[in-house]
Amino acid sequence: MGAVDRDLVSSDGTKLKGKTPDQGFQVKIPGVEVRDYPNIAVEVGYSESHPDLVDDACHWLTQTHDEPVLAVLIFCFKKPSQDSDFTDFSKWKAFVEVYER
After folding, report:
1. What is the average pLDDT score of the chain?
2. Picking from 30-39, 51-60, 89-98, which range would have the lowest pLDDT averaged per residue?
3. Buried b vs exposed e over 22-57: b needs ≥16 C-beta within 10 Å?
4. Rounded to an integer, what distance in angstroms lies between the CA atom of residue 31 and that of residue 53?
5. Which domain holds residue 40?
6. Residues near 78 by beta carbon (within 8 Å), at least 6 away in sequence
7. What number of CA atoms fall less than 13 Å from residue 32's CA on the CB side?
8. What span, in angstroms and rounded, lies between the C-alpha atoms of 76 and 49?
9. What is the DSSP string of the chain?
10. What pLDDT is recorded for position 2?
11. pLDDT tens-place string over residues 6-36
12. How many domains does the chain fold into?
């Protein structure tokens, strides 16, 4: 498994301009051919709304050239009230959703 920083490609083979996941990973999945692009896309919502994150997941799973096969969303719905607490993960509240092609 490793991080991949390549842009994704649409179903017609063109590069998706200005649209890359927050992080992409290339993971060997049994029964799935290894490709050049990430097969797991991760989106983190810090300033983005949950519906926008879900739209991004749908985009990755339906508008790309068979990649990725998983979209992981991390939605932060409560942020620390003080800047000094941003590195203290116990001050954050978030949930994770996983969508599959």
Report:
1. 76
2. 30-39
3. bbbbbeeeeeeeebebbbbbbbbbeebeeeebbebb
4. 28
5. 2-100
6. 92, 93, 94
7. 16
8. 9
9. -EEE-PPPBBTTS-B-TT---SEEEE---TTS---SS-SEEEEEESSS-HHHHHHHHHHHHHSBSS--SEEEEEEEEE--SSGGGTT-GGG-EEEEEEEE-
10. 46
11. 555 555 556 655 567 888 888 777 887 776 6
12. 1
What Rg do the C-alpha atoms of the chain give, in angstroms?
15
Amino acid letter, residue 64: T
Residue 101 structure tokens? 């092609």
Phi, psi of 33 (to 5 degrees): -65, 135
The more confident residue out of 71 and 81 is 71
Which amino acid, one-letter code, is at 68?
Answer: P
Residue 1: per-residue pLDDT: 45
Q: Is the pTM of this model over 0.90?
A: no
